[in-house]
Amino acid sequence: YDQLIKSRFVEMFGDTKTNSKKLPLVKPEEICESISAGGDRPDEVSSIKTTDFAYPIFSNGEKDDGLYGWSKEYRIEKPSVTVSGRGTIGYSSYRKDGKFTPIVRLIVMTPNEKVNPVYLTYYLNLEREEGSGSGVQQLTVPMIKSKKIMLPELIKQNKFAEFVEQVDKLKFEVQKSLDESQTLFDSLMQEYFG
């Protein structure tokens, strides 16, 4: 699925490294309301979501999409794109529900009306930074702000986001079918072989 989405991105917008379709380049501050980095984790954290601990805490990394735990409060209110500043440097996720807390220097980009957050997420994932620093590599807010981002027309960004949504639905349906088939298989194995 990821390769399908990447192919569609390149087909629509060209290669991000060379800007082969000569799209306008903009600074992140032109397309984001804010760009910030997460800090310390909240004092109270739950490993499971409850009525009291209803807001996700995200950290750097791809595993479990960076979910660290759950908090009683949140620091980021609006839907945003997060970028790992450490660990899996440059890994980006769209936090479409907003209301979350970023920790451990997780970078948060809150898009404005000029950019579709799904487009921005996939663009950043294709443009993963290598980071800098001695010892532990990292990506910082100043490094993000110094980038130039290809910015196609919003209508094309929205078409790409619709394609991603369709692929995600298909992926969900296929996984659901696989799970149902596995359950049926397990049931038949139990019935026949005890």
What does this structure look like?
The protein is α+β, with helices and mostly antiparallel strands and 194 residues long. 37% of the residues lie in helices and 18% in strands. It contains 5 helices and 9 strands. The strands form 3 sheets. Strands 2-8-5-6 form a 4-stranded antiparallel β-sheet. A 3-stranded mixed β-sheet has the order 4-3-7, with no helix packed on it. Strands 1-9 form a two-stranded antiparallel sheet. The longest helix is centred in the C-terminal third of the chain and has 40 residues, at 154-193. It is globular, with a radius of gyration of 19 Å.
Task: Kindly list the characteristics that best describe this protein.
single chain; 194 residues; alpha+beta; four-stranded antiparallel sheet; three-stranded mixed sheet; 5 helices; 9 strands; 18% strand; globular
Please state the overall shape, judged from the principal axes of the Cα atoms. Answer: globular
Strand elements, count: 9
Portion of residues in beta strands equals: 15-25%
Distance between the termini: 37 Å
Average pLDDT for all residues: 90
Biggest sheet strand line-up: 2-8-5-6
The gyration radius over C-alpha positions equals 19 Å
Counting copies of identical and different chains, the oligomeric state is: single chain
Q: Biggest β-sheet: count, sense, barrel?
A: 4 strands, antiparallel
Note the run of SSEs as H and E.
HEHEEEEEEEHHEH
SSE class: alpha+beta
Helix percentage: 25-40%
* Poorly predicted runs: none
